[in-house]
Amino acid sequence: MALVERLMALEEPRIPVHVFFAAQSEIIRGALTVAQVKSFLNMDVAAKTEYDLLVATAPTGTSATALANKALFVDKLHSIFMLAEGRYPQYSTPSEVRAKLGI
């Protein structure tokens, strides 16, 4: 079960989009690690692999600008997955969503 499908509620166990968004925000703040998020979202190998691809597209750094860019990136993820969860045009299939995410 891949990450995108779980966030789109196409596969179980579903990952609620708002929970995923909150977890990413907590990673940016340093309150959670990537490993902790993978664990409590019960990601299998396929989901972990896709998550790692997604993380690789995220901005890096610790400056104020870098942190702002990370927050904007997480907001982008939230927007994409909210639209994907509702299967809106251009966000209705996993391949369309992966294209929007750049993975």
Secondary structure elements and pairings:
Layout: H1 3-7, H2 17-29, H3 34-40, H4 45-56, H5 64-85, H6 94-101
Helix pairs in contact: 2-5, 5-6
Descriptive terms for the model:
mainly alpha; globular; 103 residues
Give a brief outline of the structure.
The chain is mainly α. Helix content is 65%, strand content 0%.
What do you see in this structure?
Helix content is 65%, strand content 0%. The mean pLDDT is 96. The protein has 103 residues and is mostly helical. The chain has one domain (3-101).
Number of domains: 1
- Mean pLDDT level: 96
Q: Shape from CA axes? A: globular
Low-confidence stretches: none
The DSSP helix count reads: 6
- Tell me the β content: under 5%
- The helix fraction, in percent, is 55-70%
SS-based class: mainly alpha
> How many β-strands, per DSSP?
0
State the end-to-end CA separation: 16 Å
> What's the Cα radius of gyration?
13 Å
